[in-house]
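pasting for ref
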Amino acid sequence: MHLLRPNLRHLIRALLALVGLVLAGVGFAEPPAVKMVTIHAGAYAPLLRTTKDAAQVAVAAFLLDELPVTNAEYLAFVTANPKWRRSQVSGLFADSSYLDHWTGDLEPGPRAPAGAPVVRVSWFAARAYARWAGKRLPTTAEWELAAAAGYTRPDGKNEGAFTRDLYAWLARPVPAVLPDVATAKASLHGARGLHGLVWEWVDDFNTAMVTGESRADSGLERDLFCGAGSVGAKDLGDYAAFMRQALRSSLKANNTTSSLGFRCARDLPASPAPTP
């Protein structure tokens, strides 16, 4: 029998490798199709601002995932993108606790149920997932605008049932196993779990507060530091907003925690121009 030509041997080897990858489900996972809700245009009043900042930030209408990203959805991402698996991720992009509650690279395990929100993911990882899914992370202004709505009214802070649930969640310790996202209540917009499941990454989290190194910068307001930081706050009684501000200002982009996940956003498609 004649030996196969080298080029043909290489082709067969490549085809066999391709079949093996397909059978293993590696590298071919598609971004999951998830429901998104419309967050209508509005304004976000930053919790802390200097005298140079506008009192409100206009926010255009946008699309937001109904639910935070789950372990099952994140598994599809790391299956398709090996460099984001726990054993292969660079320390520059995720710290040592990245997905460390998962049983293995491609096995979330009992501490990370399929329907529970994925946590212990860094900002870098969340952004990479969003790009893979054809989306992006919401901005602080977008997330806060969406999260301000209660169950039945746009100003949740004036809705008794909503505020009771919010502060009851803030008072509870993080459970060892997070609940399924399907258990989250829907807001007026239809988004679920913005409060009550996990904290969530936003794209511009690192603009939450200036750094301590900036104190020598003559262009910055001195009252943003230490106890005087609340002087410019829009609502001194908004404890939940202060907690979110504190969390964001303490994070680095490669940090991961047991209570920090994310969801994705997308710009609304442009309306077609009217026909003349």
